[in-house]
Structures are given as structure tokens and as C-alpha cells.
Design brief:
Elements (H helix, E strand, L loop, with lengths): L1 H9 L2 H11 L5 H13 L3 H14 L2 H10 L5 H13 L6 H5 L7 H15 L8 H4 L4 H15 L4 H7 L5 H14 L5 H7 L5 H14 L7 H13 L5 H11 L8 H8 L6 H10 L7 H11 L2 H6 L2 H13 L2 H11 L5 H9 L7 H13 L7 H7 L7 H11 L5 H9 L7 H12 L5 H16 L3 H11 L3
Helix pairs in contact: 1-2, 2-4, 3-4, 3-5, 4-5, 4-6, 5-6, 6-8, 8-10, 10-11, 10-12, 11-12, 12-14, 13-14, 15-16, 17-18, 19-21, 21-22, 22-24, 25-26, 26-28, 27-29, 28-29, 28-30, 29-30
Length: 472
């Protein structure tokens, strides 16, 4: 021990840290004296913290007094060590002093307090944890919920249920898991509500606890009551209530799928995935082509969509023109599954319809990127090089295709103003110019284009010209 005491006094930082750890196992009053001095006066905060931890492990009145003093340190690292040391050493009389650190300015200190109180005071810590439930830090609130469940069981259900509506996913997840720790029939309805949470992890945890707690609950009277309330909320004006309701109905079966079918037909983008899962749970199958098309679009079940034939294409076309934006994009994806020339021609015709620019771009990109679509992409791009909304997409595709016949069209597009807002195409043409294996005639055309653009102030073109002159 003498060697460790000397290292604590005279060693470098690492030696002093090692000495603190060694002295923690000595159970010596002399060690407590020197550790207390290091906890107060050592020049490095890590050593002060390690000395505080060692004092907590040593035990005894002198060591506990020094650790309680460290709770008031100006350094959060030392205060963290003090809370940990008191809890680790089992200093049960220190619970109230530790509880006061729930008002600590450092969240890192406050996060340790619930666990420390649970260890120091057991069930008597429950009233001391109340401030932690209102803490501004999510980890503190989550720790408090977990400790409450372990300490007071069913008596904590009210607080745990409140945690299910916390704004932070971490706290809601902790509340679900804590309810699983408590168990009993009272937790079932709150857990079903949690199964409708907007966060996937919270929903998954709630389902896991529900299944583990009572697999038969889903068919009980309580489940039917919860489902009835959820069906009413499917039409609520608050989207959060609608999402929660749909997620509940995705895990609680009811006899009548009609409310879910009606909600699905409304085209609410936030609900589609949950509603589809709920309908599958009920064994529902579409009763007409429109319902089937909507279902297959949500599932992206293209084989079944194509199997419906021409009526499905017409239904997708109607949705592409008249549904909300998210449904229209789904419908466009569906239209592109019918890749023969006749159907593709009708999709191309959408580019001439009065639809907003974002959807026109979605159709155009779909035609360029979809597989097995009967369209001449080069011809389509050349046609729309003069279109204000689609020109940049068309030029980008033509450059990537590397067709020498498109070069004049691309250069004309850039010189006509396209270069000002399509840096990607300018750069791509410049790379072609600098390639050693490029066609000399093409390189000459690109060179003249780049010099013209550079003279007009285009920075990308100027940089390309500079690199080319340097031979890079």
C-alpha cells in the first residue's frame, strides 16, 4: 500500500489513476485520508474523479464524508464519480444528498441519479424520483420510469402510462418496457395504444410485450373496446390520432374490415402501410378492381397488378390524374409496369397534361429509369431539351448515354442558357473533352463550347479549359 500512496502523491497522471484504483481495495483508513486529499486537491480532474470513486468503494465515515463533499464539486466529472461511488459503495444514508443532484446543471450527473437512488433507498426512493419524471433530459426521464417500475410495480402504472405520451421516442420506449416489467391486466390497454405509436421501435416493443403478457388479449372485450375507439379516430382531423388509430387496428383484429377499407380509399398517405397490414390481419381481399389496384400499389405487388390487365391500367391512369400527390406517384409507378409500346405511349402523353412540375419530372425520370419500357429514351430526351422543367434531366441522360449523335443537341442546349443551372452536364462534357480516346471531332466541338461558356463567365467551363490547357 505504501507504494500506492507514494504513486498517488508523486506519480504522473496515469500513475495516480492506477494508485486510486489499487487503494480502493485496501480498506485502509490511511488510504481514505490520502484519497480524500486527492479528491479535493489533485491537479487533474480525472484523478479527482477516480479518487472519489475509490472513496465510495472504501466505505467508512471518513470516506463517505469526502464523497458527499465531492457531490458539490465544481467539476461535473467529479460529481458523476460521487454519485456512482455512493451507489456502488452502498452508502444508504446518502440517498437524500444524491436526490438533490436531480437539480444538477449537468445532464450526465442527473442521468445517474435514478439508478443510484434505486440502489441506495430501494422502494423508499419512489417519492424522491418525482422530479426526474419532469426533467428536461429524455435519458433522465427514461431512467426514472425504469426505476419506478422496478421499485413500486403496479403502483407505478400511472406514471408509466404518462410516459407513453412523452415527446421523445426514448422515453416512450422505456415506458413500454417498464410496463412489461410490471405485468398484469392493467397494462394491456395502454400497450395497445403504444402499438399505434408513430415510431417503429416503440410499436415493436409494445407488440412484443403484448404477445408475451397475454396472447389471448387481442380477442378479449378490452381489445374490442380499444379497436372501436381506434376506428372512430381513423377520421380524426389530427393526423397523429389517425396514424395511432391505424397502427392499433393493424395489431388488434376486428370482425368488420369496412372502416379500414373506407380509410384506405380516402388515400391518406400517412395511414396506408398500417391499414394494409390491418386488412391482411383480417383476411380481407379486394371486392373490385379499384380496391385491388389501390392495395397492389401500396404493396408494390406488380405481378398481381399486371394480372388485372387493362382495367388496372385505366384505374392507375385515373389515380395519376386525380389523386393526392403521394397516390399519384404510386399510380405512375403502376403505369410503368405496363411496358408495351401502346401503354408507354399513354404514359409519355402525361408529360403534355396539365400536371404540376414535380409530377412531370417523376414521370420523365420513370420513363428513363424503368426497366422493360418500350420507349426510345434518346428521342424522348431530345424532344424535351427545350422544356424548362425537363431539359436538365434530358441533357444529363444524353450525356450519360454517350451517343455522338446527341452532342450537337446538348451543346445547343448549354449555349442557349442551360449551362447556367446544369453544372453536371457541363462537367460531364468537359470530362469527355479530356478523355484521350474521345473522338477528335467531338472533342473539338466541346472545346469551342467550353471556351464560349468560359467567355460568358461560366466558372465550371473556365476551370475545365484551364485543366485542358495544362494537360490534366
Amino acid at each position: 500500500m505504501l507504494r500506492d500512496l507514494l504513486r498517488l502523491q508523486l506519480g504522473d497522471r496515469d500513475a495516480r489513476l492506477a494508485a486510486c484504483k489499487a487503494l480502493a481495495e485496501s480498506r485502509s483508513a490511511l488510504a481514505a485520508h490520502f484519497l480524500a486529499r486527492a479528491a479535493r486537491h489533485d491537479g487533474h480532474v480525472w484523478v479527482r474523479g477516480e479518487a472519489t470513486l475509490a472513496l465510495g468503494a472504501l466505505g467508512g465515515a471518513k470516506a463517505r464524508k469526502a464523497v458527499l463533499e465531492a457531490l458539490e464539486s465544481a467539476d461535473w466529472e467529479v460529481r458523476v464519480a460521487a454519485v456512482s461511488g455512493l451507489a456502488g459503495g452502498g452508502h444508504r444514508g446518502a440517498a437524500e444528498a444524491v436526490a438533490r443532484r436531480l437539480s444538477d446543471e449537468s445532464a450526465l450527473v442527473r442521468r445517474l441519479v435514478p439508478w443510484a437512488l434505486a440502489k441506495l433507498a430501494g422502494p423508499e426512493a419512489v417519492p424522491l424520483l418525482a422530479p426526474a419524471l419532469r426533467d428536461g433530459d429524455a435519458e433522465v426521464r427514461a431512467a426514472a420510469l425504469t426505476c419506478l417500475a422496478e421499485l413500486s410495480g403496479a403502483a407505478a402504472i400511472g406514471s408509466l402510462v404518462s410516459g407513453l405520451t412523452d415527446e421523445t421516442q426514448e422515453v416512450r420506449l422505456a415506458a413500454v418496457r417498464a410496463l412489461g416489467t410490471v405485468g398484469g391486466t392493467e397494462i394491456m390497454a395502454p400497450l395497445v395504444a403504444a402499438a399505434g405509436d408513430v415510431d417503429r421501435a416503440v410499436r415493436g416493443a409494445a407488440l412484443e410485450v403484448l404477445t408475451r403478457s397475454d396472447p389471448a388479449w387481442a380477442t378479449s372485450a378490452g381489445a374490442r373496446e380499444v379497436a372501436a375507439g381506434a376506428e372512430k379516430d381513423l377520421g380524426h382531423q389530427d393526423w397523429r390520432r389517425r396514424v395511432r388509430a391505424a397502427n392499433v387496428l393493424a395489431v388488434v383484429p376486428t370482425a368488420d374490415p369496412t372502416p379500414l377499407v373506407v380509410a384506405l380509399a380516402r388515400g391518406d398517405a400517412d395511414l396506408r402501410e398500417a391499414l394494409t397490414r390491418g386488412l391482411a390481419l383480417r383476411g380481407w381481399t379486394p371486392s373490385n378492381t379499384e380496391e385491388a389496384v389501390r392495395t397492389h400499389l401500396v404493396d408494390k405487388d406488380w405481378n398481381r397488378l399486371r394480372a388485372l390487365g387493362e382495367p388496372a391500367f385505366e384505374a392507375c391512369l385515373e389515380l395519376a390524374m386525380n389523386a393526392d400527390r403521394a397516390r399519384r406517384k404510386e399510380a405512375i409507378d403502376g403505369l410503368l409496369q405496363f411496358g408495351d409500346a401502346a401503354h408507354t405511349g399513354r404514359v409519355v402523353a402525361l408529360l403534355s397534361e396539365e400536371i404540376d412540375g414535380e409530377l412531370r419530372r417523376y414521370v420523365f425520370l420513370g420513363l428513363l429509369e424503368a426497366e422493360d419500357v418500350a420507349v426510345d429514351r434518346g428521342e424522348l430526351c431530345r424532344r424535351y431539351l427545350g422544356d424548362a422543367e425537363l431539359a436538365h434531366l434530358a441533357a444529363r441522360h444524353l450525356v450519360k448515354s454517350g451517343d455522338a449523335g446527341d452532342l450537337d443537341a446538348i451543346i445547343a442546349y448549354l449555349l442557349d442558357g442551360g449551362a447556367a443551372w446544369n453544372r453536371e452536364v457541363v462537367t460531364a462534357l468537359g470530362n469527355t473533352w479530356r478523355r484521350e480516346d474521345a473522338d477528335p471531332g467531338a472533342k473539338n466541338k466541346i472545346r469551342r463550347c467550353m471556351k464560349t461558356l468560359a467567355s460568358e463567365g461560366n466558372e465550371e467551363a473556365a476551370a475545365i479549359c484551364w485543366l485542358a490547357e495544362r494537360g490534366e
